[in-house]
Amino acid sequence: MEEIIDLLSEKITKNLLKDPKMKLDPSEPLISTGLLDSFNLVDLALIVEETFGVRIEDFELNADTFDTLEQLAQIIAERQ
Amino acid sequence: MQLPDIFLLAFLLILIRLLPGQNLRRGAMLVCSCVFVFMFQPVLPIRGLDFSFPLWTILLTVCVYGAFSRENPLKSRQNLIDFAFIFGTLLLISLTRFFSYDGILSASRPPQLRGILPVIAAGAALSFLLNTAAWRDSKWPAKLFIWLILIILIVLKTPQLALLFSRSARSLNGQSAELALSTDIRWFGFSYIAFRLLSILIDTLKGRKADLSLGDFLVYVCFPPALSAGPIDRWDRFTKEYTAGPKNQAAADILSGFGQIALGLFHKFILADALAKMALSAQNAGQFIHTGWAWAALFAYALQIFFDFSGYSEIAVGLGMLFGIHLPKNFDHPYLKPDLTKFWSSWHMTLTQWIRSYVFNPLTRTLRGNKNHPLPQWLIVLITQLTTMLLIGLWHGVTLNFVIWGLWHGIGLFVHQLYSHKTAAWLRSMSSGVQKIYTVFSTLLTILYVSLGWIWFVVPDFSGALAFFGRLFG
């Protein structure tokens, strides 16, 4: 789980938020706070699919499905 | 929904909730949902149409169930019971013809039975037929209904097509076609019903399994609290909560449900209705002499539409709570958001979430995923934002003013997207004082942009809207 979280955190700050120095807390809300916008979410889905081979469906890209790195990592681990 | 409807519904929802046994509750809720589809329908000047629209809502829902369900209805006891409840209710409503000339459960007196019964029988037969073994694994019934629903939506939302429909219906009925108006064609709640039906059809076409009974599906599509103005709940979320039955917290739910309803009534019937007296409208847009009053009217409208719509949503959420259903909220302080992207994440949230799930996300994924011919980032943002907002505009009506309103927001979102990453990183490096000042400034700018956008929404003719812009800045 921790490996998934670290990898996700790195990809999000570097590729999506373009702020590699930024640190994300695993329990920090990403979607409900607006940190990740709708474009970031689609990119995140593509990154997850490419990196972990797990598909996050279009209707799942919202804060109800996952809002934190922990929750996303949990989904990835369950589907792998 | 008028006040008597709200109180009647509140009473019935509590009553059904308190019934003993989940099966009895589900049966009663199914009948209640069917009846309210008829009760909410306004009277229409075309004979029989205010009975036909609710009837078609029920039959369309039953047929859509036949198109996506993988379960043979003849083999499922639950579905057969649901079938009996639905068609029994339709028959009962039709029979009220013999009791009153005004219509007891329907907008006006139901038409003659010989006209209705074949339609009801055809709907039932079609639903069974769509679900026969030969077609159960085929995708075309679902595709057919997606197109049918889209065509109905386009006809209802396009004034010229609605007028054509009204003329044809009047001619068929032997009524004067010359008196036809596009507003004759008001199919109650169809904009919301259509999106619920479309979501399950698209999901099942993509391979998702939808394991729900006919009755539960109909209650999802026609849940009375959400029939008039949403929210557009997701079918999987709704049916999960609905089939689990209300939790043992009736008193707490009823208390907070009435709290929400009271808040919604205050927002809708006091604040919004009071603001309407001074707010910008299609009728008064050309009458402003002083710039100050024009600005006041514009901001009054911005608040009026918010309180009106969010009030309705609160009432719907509150009514749902009385029954133990927690409908999703539709508004989350949209005018306190510091940018247009966040505004659209908190305004009519269930509609924007729907559009994201079925238009924006698949479109962005396709454009982003094309590694061989990658499009520049800005072009993807432009295409997806304009498409999404144009569709939201057209959902309100296929007219020039709604197209411009959609594009206004599409362009706004595109421009915000271009600079948002840079400002977000810069803002994070600033002190909290600077962040606060920036947030206040950007929130005011967002309110201004959204408010100016409402001019296109409220003034239907282009020149009238431009003249009002001229009054504001002239």
Report what the structure shows.
The complex is a heterodimer of chains A (80) and B (474). Chain A contains three helices and no strands. Chain A has helices spanning 2-16, 38-52, 69-79. In chain A, helix 1 crosses helix 2 (38-52) and helix 1 (2-16) packs across helix 3. The termini of chain A are close together. Chain B has three domains: 3-244, no CATH class; 250-325; 335-473, no CATH class. Chain B has helices spanning 3-17, 22-40, 49-68, 77-95, 113-130, 133-136, 140-157, 159-173, 190-205, 214-222, 235-244, 250-275, 291-323, 340-344, 349-369, 377-396, 400-428, 432-458, 462-473. In chain B, helix 2 (22-40) runs parallel beside helix 4. Chain B is globular. Chain B starts with a helix and ends with a helix. The mean pLDDT of chain B is 90. The A-B interface holds A 17-19, 22, 34, 37-39, 41-43, 45-46, 57-59, 61-62, 64 and B 199, 203, 206, 234, 237, 341-342, 345, 353, 356-358, 360-362, 364-365, 368-369, 381, 384, 417, 420-421, 424-425, 428.
The general outline of chain B is globular
Provide the residue-averaged pLDDT of chain B. Answer: 90
The CATH architecture of chain A is Orthogonal Bundle
Which fold name is given in CATH as the topology of chain A? Answer: Non-ribosomal Peptide Synthetase Peptidyl Carrier Protein, Chain A
| N-to-C order of helices and strands of chain B | HHHHHHHHHHHHHHHHHHH
Number of helices of chain B: 19
Task: Please give the radius of gyration of chain B in angstroms.
Answer: 24 Å
Tell me the total number of β-strands of chain A. 0
Give start-end ranges of low-pLDDT stretches of chain A.
none
Low-confidence region ranges of chain B = none
